[in-house]
Every structure is written in C-alpha cells, then in structure tokens.
From TrEMBL:
Domain PLD phosphodiesterase: 167-194
Pfam families for this protein: PLDc_2
Organism: Corallococcus carmarthensis
This protein's name: Phospholipase
Chain segments annotated as transmembrane: none
Upper lineage: Bacteria, Pseudomonadati, Myxococcota, Myxococcia, Myxococcales
GO BP of this protein: cardiolipin biosynthetic process
Length: 228
C-alpha cells in the first residue's frame, strides 16, 4: 500500500469519516466513491486488512508526519487574568472550533444554557453540513433540543448517558472534538457562567490520535443511547 501520492485533505477526510463511523468496514469502492474518495478505491483491500483501528493508527501517523508533528497544547481560561497571561479565552476558543469545523463535531457536557450565544456557532457549522454528536446525562440529552436548541434544523444527534441501575452517576465531562483532529477539554460548562464569568481552566490540543481515543470512549460505550 502506498499513500504517498494521496493529498493530505483526502487522508484527513478518510480519517474523519472512518472515525465518525460514516464508513464501515470492510470498506467498499462504492462507499469510498460516495464520500468523494475515488482516489483511494485501489487501496480498499489493503485498508480492510488493517481493519478500522489499524487504519486509524496508520492515518494518524501519516497526518502527523505531514503536519510536522502536533502543535503544543494551549491553555484556555475563563475569569480574571494576570497581566502576563498567555491563556486563550474559553468562549473564543469554543466559537473558533465550531467555525473551523468541516466534517464532524463531538460535544459532551454536563450543563447548557444561553444557547443562542454559546451554541450559535455550532448551529452555523451544522448548516454547512457538519455532523454533530452530543453527549449528556439522559435527562439533559432528552430535553436538549426542546430547552437548549432554539435554532431549529439542522439538529445534532443527542445521546444520553444512563448508569447501571442503583448507581448514582452523571456525565460530568466537558469536551469537544472537531474533525477528528482538535481536542478541547475544559472544566467549563456550556453556559454563560462557564464561558464568561466563572474561573475555569482547560486545554486545547491538535492531536489526531488523542481525538480518536476520546471519540471512541463515547462512540463505543454501551451506556449511551441515542435519544434524539
């Protein structure tokens, strides 16, 4: 198998659609063609021999090599800042991630409000054809479109977390994965307070391998159920 002649955007697209499970294994020439990846039809058999996880690892390695390695993590902050702070603003980083999304967004959160401000850039991304999977505790996910999505279609897929019977637990994680490439993990809820007023801290990384691992934590969990 030789992918040296395949353009980086095509490798990135292949990585994104496999990670989002829009392309299943075994890959077929017809499915690749349907995703606009005709140049990879001849590699279908070799990729199938690697399987889904092996293909993702291969693509991660190739893309990191082409990009010259991942950029350094960036500190993200909500609240008062020191005079010499080098941190980026939480609300700005979140909006920027949604604005740059071209294929997929994974959003996991505990609390949401002021969606007209906080989530409008996400709705704009969906209008561009970006797919979104949202994860929250079952009660939050079930009411999300009614209570926290004032925009109308297109809608994100909403997945609810339900712990085992007798276990008192909630989905308390707050993170975003964009295009199977950028990872934002934060203490901030997707609320006005979390984005603009509280003291919150997070980190933004460009790391395709970490993105794949984090996405798999949600997409393969039997404790999540699609509710909308």
């Amino acid at each position: 198998m030789d992918l040296s002649g395949v353009a980086t955007p095509e490798l990135e697209r292949l990585r994104a659609v496999i990670a989002a499970r829009r392309l299943g294994f075994p890959l077929s020439r017809l499915a690749l063609r349907g995703e606009g990846l005709e140049t990879l039809e001849g590699e279908a058999a070799a990729l199938n021999a690697l399987g889904r996880e092996g293909t993702l690892v291969l693509l991660d390695t190739l893309l990191v090599e082409r990009r010259g390695g991942a950029r350094r993590p960036e500190l993200v902050w909500t609240g008062p800042e020191t005079r010499w702070s080098g941190a980026r603003d939480t609300a700005v980083v979140l909006a920027d991630l949604f604005h740059k999304a071209t294929n997929t967004v994974l959003l996991a959160g505990f609390a949401f409000d002021h969606a007209a401000d906080v989530l409008r850039p996400l709705h704009e991304a969906l209008e561009r054809g970006v797919g979104c999977r949202l994860y929250a505790s079952a009660s939050v996910a079930s009411s999300f479109l009614r209570e926290h999505w004032p925009f109308g279609p297109p809608f994100p897929e909403c997945h609810g977390f339900s712990p085992e019977r007798g276990v008192f637990a909630s989905l308390h994680a707050k993170c975003v994965v964009v295009d199977a490439r950028w990872v934002f993990v934060t203490s901030a809820n997707f609320t006005d307070r979390g984005q603009t007023r509280n003291i919150e801290v997070g980190v933004l990384l460009e790391d395709a391998r970490l993105a794949a691992v984090l996405e798999s934590q949600f997409s393969t969990g039997e404790w999540f159920t699609r509710v909308a």
